[in-house]
Amino acid sequence: MEDFEYRDGELFCEEVPLREIAEGVGTPCYVYSSSSLTRQFRAFNEAFRELPHLICFAMKANENLAVLKLFANLGGGVDIVSGGELFRALQAGIPPERIVFAGVGKSTEEIIMALKQGILMFNVESPEELDEINHVAKSFGRKAPVALRVNPDVDPKTHPYISTGLRKSKFGMDISLALEEYRRAAGMEFVEVLGVHSHIGSQITSVGPFADAVDKVLALVGRLHEVGVSIRYLNLGGGLGIAYQSETLPGPAELAETLVPRLRQMNLTLLLEPGRHLVGNAGILLSKVLYRKETPVKRFIVADAAMNDLLRPSLYEAYHEVRPLSAMSPQPALQRADLVGPICESGDFLALDRDLPDLKPGDLFAMMSAGAYGFSMSSNYNARPRVPEVLVKGGKHFVVRKRETYHDLIRGEEIPPFLANG
Ligand code: LLP
């Protein structure tokens, strides 16, 4: 996380002391580094320069319009999974021909919207969905571009909640049945078969599973050519992990070393859908300590950020490094504690049984590596307004999403007349 570093004992994002942002914008808030985002995108894009390709950022990882626009300006597209994500992508100025649409439950309305906009293709996840797309496209009198999402049955060796390419998973179509489904798709009047899609999971920490998946998918592409179904796009999804601690993991260059030789002679355009890798280490969640509390068996540090702001620790027991904004010197002895939020759930924690510095009320700290699946998974639970997002560029910072107000919390709600005069 080169763009988040201590200078003279103070944690900076690029040229901006994070304390300045905490004081100006308030806590909790998310902070993203535009230089990190740019570097991550360029590294991915550069790694695959030998092949015709498009990087479709998986915007579920971070759907802020400014982040989307930054990637669009660098030539990126997006992987979307809902009508809402399509709307956001278009608002951010992503050209429709750089948008791919996955997800096991696309509604008729979402299919219509995407067809009208002219997206690059649907990643189709079931035979019934394929029928529906064909049916909807017929009413428009135009062909719907599709890839079938196949499930290659590869173990990505990651958290079970984020494994998607196993045979038992709800995603995609079993690869052994795919040939038949491709034959059927090729015979449909309002479907144009363009590609094959596969996404095996997230936070994958070695390239082996990608190699296994691509080999299985390429075997399918070969069979498809033999039966006269020609494929132009190969979409290998996302999933490349990031370091949450100081572990060394393969990056896009190693991924490319694995994939490019296998694809060089294939005459295919490669699509990739990295999410976490582009944004995870480019963002943090800033928070403030409210109280300390000791029971006979445990120490707690109570922060103003909670599981509604950053769900990953509660949902996956995910590790996010905790860094005080002021590096304490001399380094204080670490004490084992739970860092918890104000939410009324025992599962509300940011760090569990962790050796933490002695943070005092009023101290500011950063939850590191929170740029992916941080704000995008946040909620209003316990009627907590969602926090602002800030984008740093050099010595400047920009609020790219305001803090929600209490009025935002009740927008759209109504008390019906029969209750009004009670
Ligand atoms: N493509 C598809 C079809 C996906 O379902 C996903 C993620 C991606 C691409 C991007 O994967 P990535 O490059 O970010 O690993 N909330 C979880 C992660 C869920 C991932 C869901 N799908 C977390 O916080 O770890």
How does the SSE layout of this entry go?
Layout: E1 4-7, E2 10-13, E3 16-17, H1 18-25, E4 29-33, H2 34-47, E5 53-58, H3 65-73, E6 77-80, H4 83-91, E7 99-101, H5 108-117, E8 121-124, H6 127-140, E9 144-151, E10 173-174, H7 175-186, E11 191-197, H8 208-226, E12 233-235, H9 252-263, E13 269-272, H10 276-279, E14 283-294, E15 299-303, H11 312-316, E16 322-324, E17 335-340, E18 349-356, E19 364-367, E20 389-393, E21 396-401, H12 406-409, H13 417-420
Parallel strand pairs: 4-20, 5-6, 5-13, 6-7, 7-8, 8-9, 9-10, 9-11, 11-12, 12-13, 15-17
Antiparallel strand pairs: 1-2, 2-3, 4-14, 14-15, 14-19, 16-19, 17-18, 20-21
The structure holds ligand LLP.
The site of ligand LLP has 21 residues, from α10 and α11.
Total DSSP helices: 13
Low-confidence stretches: none
The fraction of residues in strands falls at 15-25%
What structural category arises from helix and sheet content? alpha/beta
Query: Are any ligands bound, and if so which?
Result: ligand LLP
The biggest sheet, with number of strands, parallel, antiparallel or mixed sense and barrel status, is: 9 strands, mixed
Please state the overall shape, judged from the principal axes of the Cα atoms: globular
Count of strand segments: 21
Nearest-integer average pLDDT: 95
Distance between the amino and carboxyl termini: 56 Å
Percent of residues in helices: 25-40%
Radius of gyration: 23 Å
